[in-house]
Design a protein that fits this description.
Layout lengths: L1 E6 L2 E4 L4 E9 L4 E9 L6 E7 L4 E3 L7 E6 L4 E6 L8 E9 L4 E3 L3 E6 L1
Parallel strand pairs: 2-11
Antiparallel strand pairs: 1-3, 3-8, 4-5, 4-9, 5-6, 7-8, 9-10, 9-11
Protein backbone atom coordinates (compact mmCIF):
# COMPACT_ATOMS: atom_id res chain seq x y z
CA UNK A 1 0.00 0.00 0.00
CA UNK A 2 1.11 3.56 -0.73
CA UNK A 3 0.24 6.69 1.20
CA UNK A 4 0.21 10.03 -0.61
CA UNK A 5 0.26 13.53 0.87
CA UNK A 6 -0.24 16.55 -1.37
CA UNK A 7 0.76 20.12 -0.60
CA UNK A 8 1.24 23.43 -2.35
CA UNK A 9 -2.27 24.46 -3.27
CA UNK A 10 -3.64 27.92 -2.67
CA UNK A 11 -5.10 31.08 -4.15
CA UNK A 12 -3.35 32.75 -7.05
CA UNK A 13 -4.23 35.38 -9.64
CA UNK A 14 -4.65 34.47 -13.28
CA UNK A 15 -1.26 34.29 -14.96
CA UNK A 16 0.45 33.25 -11.76
CA UNK A 17 2.22 30.04 -10.79
CA UNK A 18 1.98 27.32 -8.17
CA UNK A 19 3.93 24.14 -7.51
CA UNK A 20 2.17 21.13 -6.08
CA UNK A 21 4.05 18.36 -4.29
CA UNK A 22 3.02 14.78 -3.61
CA UNK A 23 5.08 12.80 -1.13
CA UNK A 24 4.76 9.02 -1.25
CA UNK A 25 5.43 6.55 1.54
CA UNK A 26 4.86 2.84 2.05
CA UNK A 27 5.39 0.41 -0.83
CA UNK A 28 7.18 3.01 -2.96
CA UNK A 29 9.30 0.46 -4.80
CA UNK A 30 6.13 -1.00 -6.27
CA UNK A 31 5.07 2.28 -7.86
CA UNK A 32 4.90 2.08 -11.65
CA UNK A 33 3.51 5.53 -12.39
CA UNK A 34 2.17 8.59 -10.64
CA UNK A 35 -0.13 11.32 -11.77
CA UNK A 36 -2.10 14.43 -10.99
CA UNK A 37 -5.84 14.64 -11.49
CA UNK A 38 -8.28 17.45 -10.77
CA UNK A 39 -11.95 17.85 -10.06
CA UNK A 40 -13.80 21.12 -10.41
CA UNK A 41 -17.21 21.67 -8.78
CA UNK A 42 -19.94 19.85 -10.71
CA UNK A 43 -17.45 18.16 -13.04
CA UNK A 44 -15.87 14.74 -13.28
CA UNK A 45 -12.34 14.13 -12.13
CA UNK A 46 -9.93 14.45 -15.05
CA UNK A 47 -6.34 13.58 -15.75
CA UNK A 48 -3.90 16.48 -15.65
CA UNK A 49 -0.55 14.77 -16.10
CA UNK A 50 1.19 11.47 -15.47
CA UNK A 51 4.78 10.30 -15.23
CA UNK A 52 6.03 6.73 -15.39
CA UNK A 53 8.83 5.16 -13.41
CA UNK A 54 11.00 5.63 -16.48
CA UNK A 55 10.15 9.32 -16.72
CA UNK A 56 7.71 9.24 -19.63
CA UNK A 57 5.16 12.01 -19.26
CA UNK A 58 1.64 12.56 -20.55
CA UNK A 59 -0.49 15.71 -20.32
CA UNK A 60 -4.06 16.79 -20.75
CA UNK A 61 -4.20 18.98 -23.86
CA UNK A 62 -5.57 21.86 -21.80
CA UNK A 63 -2.38 22.13 -19.73
CA UNK A 64 0.29 21.34 -22.32
CA UNK A 65 2.93 24.03 -22.42
CA UNK A 66 1.83 25.45 -19.05
CA UNK A 67 2.19 22.58 -16.58
CA UNK A 68 5.19 20.32 -15.99
CA UNK A 69 5.18 17.07 -14.04
CA UNK A 70 8.43 15.81 -12.56
CA UNK A 71 9.64 13.38 -9.92
CA UNK A 72 12.46 13.24 -7.40
CA UNK A 73 13.08 9.56 -6.75
CA UNK A 74 15.43 10.29 -3.85
CA UNK A 75 12.64 12.14 -2.06
CA UNK A 76 9.81 9.87 -3.28
CA UNK A 77 8.04 13.01 -4.41
CA UNK A 78 6.21 14.06 -7.56
CA UNK A 79 5.74 17.69 -8.47
CA UNK A 80 3.37 19.63 -10.69
CA UNK A 81 4.69 23.02 -11.73
CA UNK A 82 1.75 25.12 -12.93
CA UNK A 83 2.45 28.31 -14.84
CA UNK A 84 0.18 30.78 -16.65
CA UNK A 85 -2.72 29.65 -14.51
CA UNK A 86 -6.25 30.34 -15.69
CA UNK A 87 -9.53 30.57 -13.75
CA UNK A 88 -10.60 27.32 -15.42
CA UNK A 89 -7.70 25.56 -13.67
CA UNK A 90 -9.55 26.05 -10.39
CA UNK A 91 -10.17 22.62 -8.87
CA UNK A 92 -9.16 20.19 -6.17
CA UNK A 93 -5.96 18.52 -7.35
CA UNK A 94 -5.35 14.90 -6.42
CA UNK A 95 -2.21 12.80 -6.59
CA UNK A 96 -2.51 9.18 -7.69
CA UNK A 97 -0.07 6.28 -7.66
CA UNK A 98 -0.33 3.12 -9.73
CA UNK A 99 1.51 0.04 -8.56
CA UNK A 100 2.99 -2.59 -10.87
CA UNK A 101 0.13 -4.91 -9.88
CA UNK A 102 -2.42 -2.30 -10.94
CA UNK A 103 -3.53 -1.20 -7.49
CA UNK A 104 -4.02 2.54 -7.09
CA UNK A 105 -3.88 5.00 -4.22
CA UNK A 106 -5.13 8.58 -3.96
CA UNK A 107 -4.08 11.51 -1.85
CA UNK A 108 -6.52 13.67 0.07
CA UNK A 109 -6.44 16.51 -2.47
CA UNK A 110 -5.30 20.11 -2.38
CA UNK A 111 -7.38 23.11 -3.46
CA UNK A 112 -6.15 25.37 -6.25
CA UNK A 113 -8.11 28.56 -6.83
CA UNK A 114 -7.27 30.95 -9.67
CA UNK A 115 -8.89 34.36 -9.53
CA UNK A 116 -9.54 36.45 -12.63
Amino acid sequence: QVQLVESGGGLVQAGGSLRLSCAASGSIFSINAMGWYRQAPGKQRELVATITKGGITNYNDSVKGRFTISRDNAKNTVYLQMNSLKPEDTAVYYCKSILVNGLTSWGQGTQVTVSS
